[in-house]
Amino acid sequence: MTRIPSAINLHKASKTLSLTYGPDEVFHLPAEFLRVHSPSAEVQGHGKPILQVGKLGVGLAKVEAAGQYALKLTFDDGHDSGLFTWDYLYQLALRQEQLWADYLEQLRAAGKSRDPAESVVRLML
Fold first, then answer.
1. At residue 10, what are phi and psi to the nearest 5 degrees?
2. DSSP 53
3. In this structure, which of 16, 18, 87, 123 has its CB flanked by the most CB atoms within 10 Å?
4. Domain at 7-110: CATH architecture
5. Cα(93)–Cα(11) distance, integer angstroms
6. Does the structure show a pLDDT above 80 at 120?
7. pLDDT (tens digit per residue) in 37-47
8. What is the per-residue pLDDT across 26-82, written as a single tens digit (0 to 9) for each?
9. Where are the domains of the chain?
10. Exposed (0-12), middle (13-18) or buried (19+): which is 78, by Cβ within 10 Å?
């Protein structure tokens, strides 16, 4: 059964998206977390996800409904492709801690950083 949030709030100052499913089920998803887990082809590749680097500090510029089944998120780094279906958002919320730990481990293993300044420096070397 698809879980649809009863409330969706964009908090630009803290760069988070809050999803409320009930009085005891509220999730706060950081924009950076959503950006690196975007369902877009740019991030997911074609069956082989592409590690996103340098996304520390990215924010959400806009949140729009995409029909009755998803949200379209526009990030302040210009990324706006990929629709976050209700099911995908709920899975991200439920698995946030593990998905974030996995992402940080992938960055470490690849010798990459969340910091965009470090990504630019490494490219210039």
1. -95, 125
2. -
3. 16
4. 2-Layer Sandwich (3.30)
5. 16
6. no
7. 999 998 998 88
8. 999 999 999 999 999 989 988 889 999 999 999 999 999 999 999 999 999 999 999
9. 7-110
10. exposed
For residue 89, give both structure tokens. 């958002």
CB burial of 44-68 (b: ≥16 within 10 Å; e: otherwise) equals eeeeeeeebbbbeebbbbeeeeeee
The Cα 110–Cα 87 span in angstroms is 30
Give the count of beta carbons closer than 10 Å to the beta carbon of residue 107: 17
96-110 helix and 86-94 helix, angle to the nearest 10 degrees? 80
- CA–CA distances in Å: residue 102 to residues 11, 36, 51, 117: 25, 12, 11, 22
Q: Which two tokens stand for residue 54?
A: 């340098």
pLDDT value of position 47: 82
Torsion sign over Cα 78, 80, 81, 84: positive
